[in-house]
Give the backbone structure.
Amino acid sequence: MPLSGPKAIRSAINTALNTLIDQMSTWDDDSTISRLNRAGTGWYQVDPEFWRVLTAAYDVARLTDGAYDPTLQELVNLWGFGPAGPRTAPPDPGQLRNALLRSGWKKMALHPAHRGVWQPGGLQFDLSSIAKGFGVDEIVRVLNEHGCTQYLVELGGELAARGQAPDGHAWRLHIDLAGLPINLLNQTVATSGDYRRWFEYQGKRYAHTLDARTGQPLRHNLASVTVLHDECVMADAWATALLCLGPEDGPAMAETHGLAALFLERESEELKVWHTPQFGHRAGLLTMPPDYETQATQKR
């Protein structure tokens, strides 16, 4: 179709992103997710956008046996990383135990024929770990529908690229902390790390990504995971999931599912960087060994 003007494209993108916020923002009391979190026991039909994101999150939760979980809003709030506001000390252990008992992806259910979501009562959904990726996909959809063939999209650190950069080559990006240049051609990229939002208490650092199995912030040495994927909603979910799984189970899961993933692990004063063969292929790193051995180190 003919290329639309900037004003029409901008308007369509704003509409798509506003729809995402209206449905998935836990900061908006009237959003779909906030109303679902307050709802009583029963089945609730959701809009197609919400359904796409929730089903993607559910699939990754199932595949990781709950290391990744889209039902942790109560725990996120208790740790000070949600709409309830920040905190400077860990929450009460009793509150954490009770919130963990009320959470859990196995308590939800989905009804594909009706886009139905089962709310057992008290379950608190949170799609923050995946919604930005879907936002990138929605911008890509709008650009494609308006005839755009060459672009680089960025939304909160998640990206998508199509066609060539202005210099006629693939879009060239650098992975945060790794100092590693990659080529991004007709695919998306998402990174999840423990270095963006955190607080410190009595010499311990508490980052915003929670282990759904314990209700606690991650305590392992994996600093970040970057995933390349055809859909940013999946790149976003898998980046968080592999980070939650840690430096041993994360790479094993990536290998099992053929994911293009890059891992940064803290080792003393250095960062160890390694990637799966699929990441090397997708990112144009074909000169680097296609295995999980150390690729580079960098001073923190």
